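Hey, resending since the last one bounced:
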Amino acid sequence: EFFKIKKPAFNEVTFRIQKKESLLPEQTETAESKKTCQLEPRTGKTKGTCEEGEEDEESYSSFSEDNNSSDSENESSGLQRRKDLSLGNIPSTACIEAARRRRHLARTQADYLPLNVSDSHQVSQRTVSSDLESEDESDTKNLNFVPKMRTLRQRMTEHMVSEGDESSEDEAQIKWEEQQIKKAVKLSQETYDAASLRKPAKPKFDPSVSLPPVNLEIVKKRLTERITSLQDVHRVHQREFEKYMEDIESSKMAVQELEKSSDAAVNYKFYRAMKIYVENLINCLNEKLKYINDVELAVHLLLQQQAMRVLKRRQDELKKESSYIHHMSSGEDKPTNGGLEDDEETQLLEMCERRRTCRREVRESSGEADHHEGMSSDDELTPAEVTEFQKNKDNVLEDSRKIFEDVHADFCDIRKILLKFQEWKEKFPDSYCDAYISFCLPKLLNPLIRVQLISWNPLENFMELEEMPWFRAIEEFSGVKNVSEPKRDDHPDGEVLPRVIEKTILPKITVFVKNVWDPLSTSQTKNLVQLCSNIFEKQVLSKSERSQAKEDLMNMVVLRMKKSVEEDVFIPLYPKSSVEDKSSLCSKFQERRFWSAVKLLSNILLWDGIAQEDTVRDLGLSKLLNRYLLLNLLNTPPGPDNIEKCSKVVACLPERWFQDLTSGSTLPELRNFCQHLLQCARTLHKNNHSNETEEVLLLLVRVKALQVAEDFIEEYGLEHLKSLIEK
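The C-alpha cells again:
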C-alpha cells in the first residue's frame, strides 16, 4: 500500500510501508549495513553519490518493489534497533566504531545485493567511496528525502512495476484469507465432532424414589387397551387393503377391455371425419349467416311498413272525423280551413265510409249478426298497396331460396345434419354426452330454422309448430315421444327442442309483437294468443325455472297493449240532445268509438292465463273500463242499449276471476261498475221494466256481486228473484 502526499513535483515524497517477512541471516546483516548507510550524516559528495545511485535505479519505489530482500533487511534492522532502545541501552563510541568497521568490511568484500546486476562493480566502488567520505561528514548535515526529477520513461516504468506488485499483493492477500477460512471451518468441524462423540451421562438410579404400585388389574387393563388399539389399526389397514384390491381388479378389467377393443383405428377415423364435418358445417353457416340476416330483416321491414301505414291511416281518419263532427255539431257547415284541405278531408271520410259499407255487406252475406260499428279493425289495404306488398314479398322469398342453392344437402338439410349426430349418439354415447351436443345443436340449427321461417307470420294464418318440417325432424331426433315420462329428465336430447323454441322461435315472435302486432285486431290477437298458449303449455321451454326469452315476450306484449290503450282509445262526450238521435253523426261516432274500446278490452283480457293476472286486470279494468267505458255508460240512459253494452263488458271478463270469491263481494276493480248496474236496476224497476231489471240482476250475479243483488231484492221485496242468487 502507498501513502502519497501530493505536493509540487520538486517536493514529492513517497513512503512505502513494508511487509514483515522472515529474512536469512546474511540478508539481515546486509540490510543493517544498508540502513546505517542511509541514516548516517553524509557530505556533499556522499549526497551526490546517492543521487547518482538513484538515477541508476530509476526510482526509490522501483528499488523497494524489485528487491524484497532489502525490505526485509530494513525491517529486521529496525526491529533490532527498537529492541536495543526498549532495553534502555545507549551504544558507546567503541560499539559505533566497531559497527562501522563491520559495514566497511562487508562492503569491501562485496557481501551485499547490488541494485543492478550489470553495474554491480561500479555500484560497489561508488558505495565504498561514499561511505568513507561520509564518516568525515558532520552529523548535523540533513538527509535529502526528495527524489530527483524523473523522466517520462522512468515514471512509466515505476507505474508498471507498482501495478505488478499490487497484483501480487492482492493474490497473497486472497490466499491468506482462504487459509484463515479453512482453519476456521476445520476448527468448527472438530468442535462439532467432539460434541457429537460426547455421550450423555446415564441417569443414575435413585432407590429412594418410590414407584407407583403395580398389580394384575392394571397390567391387564393396559394390555387390553393396547390390544384394542392394535385391532383398530388392523381394521384400518384391512379396509385399505380391500380398497387397493378393488382398484387393482378394476384396473385389470379396464386393461382387458382396452386389449379387447381392437377397433381403435376405426374409432379414430370416425372422430376425425366427424370433426371435419362439423368444421365445414360451421364455416358454411358462418358464410351464409349474413345473407340470412339481410333477408329476414327485409321481410320484417315490409311487414312493419304495412302495419305502420294502417296505424297512421286509422289515426289520421280518427282526427279528421272527430274534427269534422265537432264543426258540424257546433253549427258550422264547413270547417274553418278551406281549399284543398277540405277536399282531402272529404275524400278521406268518403273512403272510410266506403270501407265500412263493404265490411257491412260482407258481414250481412256471411250472416254475422253480433257485430257493431267500430268493432272492425279497419286494416284493409287498397288493391295497389296489396299488389306492391305482395311483389316485394315474393322478391324477398326468392332471395331466401337462393341462399343455400350452392350448398350440399348434408350441410343445409336439418334432417340429414341430425342423422350425423344420431350416428355419433348410437356408436359412442359416452363421448356424445361428454361433448354436450344437446347444448350445441340449438345454436347450430338456428340459421337453418330461420330460413324456413322467412315466410312465417304468426299473426296471420295460424299454423301449429308441430306441422313445420324442422319441428318434426328435431322431435324424431330427440325421441322424446318414445321415452316414458319418468326417464325424460335423464334423456340426453330431451332439451334440444325446448331450447330451439326458446332461442329461435320466441325472439322471432317478440319482433312481430314489437313491430307488426295491432292490439285492436282481434284476428291477430287470437292467433298470437293461441300460439303463445301452445308454446307455454304444450312445449316445456326448459328445465330452468326462469326463461329470459319468455319474459322479454310478455314484457313486449304488455308494453304494446298499454300503448294501444293510451293512443287508440278515444270516446268523445256530446250533449244528450246530440246523441238522442241515433242517426246523428255524433251518436254514430260515439257508438263506434265505444265499441272499438270494448273490442280492445276483449283483446286484452284474452291474455289472461298467459300474462300475469295483476297486469291484465290493471290494463283491462283499471285503465280501460273505469277510465273510458264506464264514463260512457254513465252518460247512457238506462235501457236496452245500456244493458247490451254492460252485457258485452261482462262477457269479456274471464270466469276464473270469480271462482274463488266467497265473501259475496266482487273484484275491487268492478265496484264502480256494480254500482252503475245497481243504479240501472233501480231506474228500470221504477219504470216497471221487470225483464230489464232481471237482466241487470243477472249481470250482478255473474260478477259475484251477490251482496249488492240481495240488498236490492230485500229493498224492493222481489222475493221471486232470490232464485237467481241461489243459482
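Strands lie at 2-5, 13-16.

Sorry for the duplicate.
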